[in-house]
Structure to design on (381 residues):
């Protein structure tokens, strides 16, 4: 099975959006953005004249001279955000050719962040974020074995489809090197690249716990502001993401430190942290897809009070909680923290997901305990 054989979850809506505006497609390096964009052409080939990679010298010269390939309805710009004035360049092309051509822009960084002096393209594009492969995307009837495979090899197409540990480890090392040595150096003014590389390596050990910037500061011997900026840079490059605490009214909730997760959950060595990161990634994908396609305000958060009682995740829509999720590797009774927060919040539904087989409900607690693969079928993620 090749990467091209998996139809990505956002392909149909992207085709539709291209009839209205430009489409920006952001996401982690090697998550499949190029393959998805090429699938929209009549020939899925990087040699296709409509595929314009900014890293190619000849392409760069052509675009700076105001030229586009002839006879192409869809034009794909890849990594053009590395150019300082990329938005003004695209604005010129779009305003000139919008009645004749479609434009798709891809990049391995947050295209909504790297604006380089303002968003001159406001109102001219739809923005999509491409996530790693998730359980429901790879199998509409997933089972426990599918979860275990996804936990082991992650959701990035190459190691997932290869299914070999040796290949995966080499791929992870090479990918991180390219993030630091190519993406970061091209986009950010960072003097001590080796320190930021070290930070990227140690972050998986902090998954699932409130991330202390003071701790990072001490470990790397840098200022607080520097440590925070470095984390933000790695977020902008889709290496990691953080979620905020949720503080319902009348609840003494912790409201400062965020929790950290990796876009590649297979980087986590500890089983519990890896499973929690897998769930976090699926829920973030769920939130981003609704935001990108329906325009709703979606948020992924967690609850933690001053007595360290915690619920791993809460999903909010337009500032209103939809449901909460607690992760347990084994088949355990309902967490006492679920019982506690169900009695003190207006969260309408709680799920406790696990890697076993048990599936039951406790109506008094508004809670269902169920296997993670069943949960994914319910939410279609």
């Amino acid at each position: 099975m090749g990467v091209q054989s998996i139809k990505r979850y956002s392909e149909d809506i992207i085709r539709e959006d291209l009839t209205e505006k430009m489409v920006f497609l952001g996401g982690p390096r090697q998550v499949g953005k190029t393959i998805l964009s090429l699938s929209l052409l009549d020939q899925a080939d990087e040699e296709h004249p409509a595929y314009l990679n900014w890293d190619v010298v000849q392409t760069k010269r052509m675009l700076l001279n105001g030229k586009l390939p002839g006879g192409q309805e869809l034009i794909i710009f890849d990594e053009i955000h590395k150019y300082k004035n990329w938005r003004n360049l695209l604005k010129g092309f779009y305003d000139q050719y919008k009645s004749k051509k479609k434009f798709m822009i891809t990049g391995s960084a947050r295209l909504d962040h790297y604006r380089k002096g303002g968003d001159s393209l406001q109102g001219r594009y739809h923005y999509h974020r491409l996530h790693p492969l998730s359980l429901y995307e790879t199998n509409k009837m997933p089972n426990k074995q599918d979860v275990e495979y996804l936990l082991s090899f992650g959701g990035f197409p190459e190691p997932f489809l290869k299914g070999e540990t040796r290949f995966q480890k080499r791929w992870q090392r090479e990918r991180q090197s390219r993030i630091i040595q190519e993406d970061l150096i091209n986009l950010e003014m960072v003097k001590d690249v080796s320190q930021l590389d070290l930070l990227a390596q140690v972050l998986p050990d902090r998954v699932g716990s409130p991330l202390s910037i003071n701790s990072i500061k001490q470990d790397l011997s840098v200022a607080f502001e520097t440590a925070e900026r470095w984390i933000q840079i790695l977020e902008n490059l889709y290496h990691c993401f953080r979620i905020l605490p949720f503080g319902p009214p009348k609840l003494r909730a912790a409201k400062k430190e965020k929790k950290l997760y990796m876009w590649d959950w297979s980087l986590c060595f500890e089983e519990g942290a890896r499973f929690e990161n897998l769930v976090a990634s699926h829920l973030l994908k769920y939130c981003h897809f609704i935001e990108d396609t329906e325009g709703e305000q979606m948020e992924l958060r967690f609850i933690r009070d001053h007595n360290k009682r915690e619920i791993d995740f809460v999903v909010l829509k337009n500032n209103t909680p939809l449901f909460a999720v607690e992760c347990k590797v084994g088949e355990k009774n309902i967490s006492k923290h679920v019982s506690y927060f169900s009695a003190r919040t207006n969260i309408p539904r709680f799920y406790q997901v696990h890697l076993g087989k048990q599936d039951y409900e406790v109506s008094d607690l508004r809670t269902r305990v169920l296997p993670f693969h069943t949960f994914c079928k319910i939410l279609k993620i």
In short: The chain has a mean pLDDT of 92. The chain has two domains: 3-129, 135-379. The longest helix spans residues 271-294. DSSP finds 14 helices and 13 strands in the chain.
